[in-house]
Amino acid sequence: MADESADDAGAGMDLVAEARRNWIESGLGEVDAMVSATSLARAHQIVLGRINQALTPLSLTFSRYEALALLSFTRNGSMAMARMGERLQVHPTSVTSTIDRLERDELVERTPHPDDRRATLATLTKAGRAKHVEATKALEAIRWGMGEMDDARLQELNADLANVRGSAGDNVSGSLRTASRGQT
Amino acid sequence: MADESADDAGAGMDLVAEARRNWIESGLGEVDAMVSATSLARAHQIVLGRINQALTPLSLTFSRYEALALLSFTRNGSMAMARMGERLQVHPTSVTSTIDRLERDELVERTPHPDDRRATLATLTKAGRAKHVEATKALEAIRWGMGEMDDARLQELNADLANVRGSAGDNVSGSLRTASRGQT
Predict the structure, then answer these.
(1) CB contact under 8 A, A30 and B144
(2) Residue A145 φ then ψ, to 5°
(3) Architecture of domain B60-141 in this structure
(4) Nearest to B50, CA basis, from B135, B132, B147, B130
(5) Given an 8 Å threshold on Cβ–Cβ distance, is B42 in contact with A165?
(6) What is the pTM of this model?
(7) DSSP class of residue A75?
(8) Which value does ipTM take for this structure?
(9) pLDDT tens column, B83-136
(10) Where are the domains of chain B?
């Protein structure tokens, strides 16, 4: 009986190469783009799976970790929720549900915005700040799910991913510069 | 008021470069790995968003498309559901819910496996086969969400993503070979 767990399932066959072969044999176009999209989905599944596995013992997910990280880099540990959506590049309803959960876990508090009564601030609690530090250490320890790729390979990957992001209108000027020169 | 849609939100600032700066200023480690994981998540969000946008008018998602594609490349348009989970690298419960929906839309039928009464086959219907062809054309037309990246850049990206996949134990021998030599 074959192992059906997601990580081991494909060990016997290069599934992306197999998709490529099927594509070429069927005379379908845009084979490199198809392979990129498929590989990107698989790589994301692997890396996010590892990250979430490292965060589960801390009762966090990557989305909630990202929200904590964003707040922890502000001056007062505080940001308007609408602005958080822009910075995390997610829909406002996702921010709401992420903050709901973080508030329930007492890692974040909602407060009215002092200068704009229509807006709500999310503010890191002391426990939220400590949780962010703890989770960052846990992610560092697994090298953010990137396996054994060395820094040179990671920088290459980052430059390529910056191209994908740039193709969607993301500002990637800083990423392309740092990716080609290494750390600044 | 800033635009909060996921695709345009970051246009004013390179958010990944900003994360990199915060990391370095805070003296945190594994900055390239952090950037890779963050960029991978964002690139995946962009590409999957475009793909799902192209598939929505056809009442499909990428997961359901992948299941149709997998079946369409078999000899009889048919595969055991457990085997589909292995090939799609997803959990058996995901295969079940994907096939449930495809069956409801009359694109796939469940039948008992002729040689193994514990197993269930998913089989493409005629409508399912036509839907696969139609959806493949729709994805070709948007170059699988890869924007304006040319084939050389896509092949570079594919080699880098094969490294990520390989780090999780995926067999990537075919991908590394074809990525470095272009199409075979």
Answers:
(1) yes
(2) 75, 10
(3) Orthogonal Bundle (1.10)
(4) B147
(5) yes
(6) 0.84
(7) S
(8) 0.85
(9) 999 998 889 999 999 999 999 999 999 999 888 888 999 999 999 999 999 999
(10) 60-141, 149-184
